[in-house]
Amino acid sequence: MGAIAKILGYIAKYGSKAWDVIKNAVGSAWSSFKAAWDEGYWAATKWLLEKSAYVDIIYQALKAVFGE
Question: Quick count: other Cβ atoms within 10 Å of Cβ 21?
């Protein structure tokens, strides 16, 4: 759950720059994640929990670009 909180923190802090990184990292899953985000914070969290394989991919991509 810590990685999910960090992902959401990157989005809050870096905005569109974080979205660009996420879009490149998740590829075809981008539209479903963005749709979940547009529904709200908890919907995005639920999406990340349900598709946990993407959590590390997204987190590592954001960490590589922005650091910790």
Answer: 20
Q: What is the pLDDT of residues 29-57, one digit of tens each?
A: 999 999 999 999 899 999 999 999 999 99
Q: What is the DSSP letter of 44?
A: H
Beta-carbon-side half-sphere exposure of residue 16 (alpha carbons within 13 Å): 0
pTM of the entire structure?
A: 0.87
End-to-end alpha carbon distance in the chain: 16
Residue of 45, 61, 65 whose CA lies nearest to 2: 45
Residue 22, Cβ density class (10 Å: 0-12 exposed, 13-18 middle, ≥19 buried):
buried
